[in-house]
Design a protein that fits this description.
alpha+beta, Alpha-Beta Plaits
Length: 84
């Protein structure tokens, strides 16, 4: 979960581009309360990099908090997409 000024600033498109570049799969979406939810899977190093990227966001964003949960399991996603 990413909180701050993260909607209306291209945050989801930024995350999708960066996640695909890192070879990750999953999804990102806006929530009604103004936060962005992100689920990603892939190698731990790439996930840690995406977490750092999400913590800064694109230039027009102002991230105030990133909450995360880590788990292991079989792959569930083929690509990285923006969802509703």
């Amino acid at each position: 979960m990413i909180r701050g000024r993260v909607q209306g600033v291209g945050f989801r498109h930024f995350i999708r581009r960066e996640a695909r570049h890192l070879g990750l799969s999953g999804w990102v979406c806006n929530l009604e309360d103004g936060t962005v939810e992100l689920t990603a899977e892939g190698p731990a190093a790439a996930l840690e990099r995406l977490r750092a990227i999400a913590g800064s966001g694109p230039g027009s964003a102002k991230v105030t908090q990133v909450s995360e949960e880590w788990s292991e399991g079989p792959p569930q996603f083929q690509t990285f997409e923006i969802t509703r």
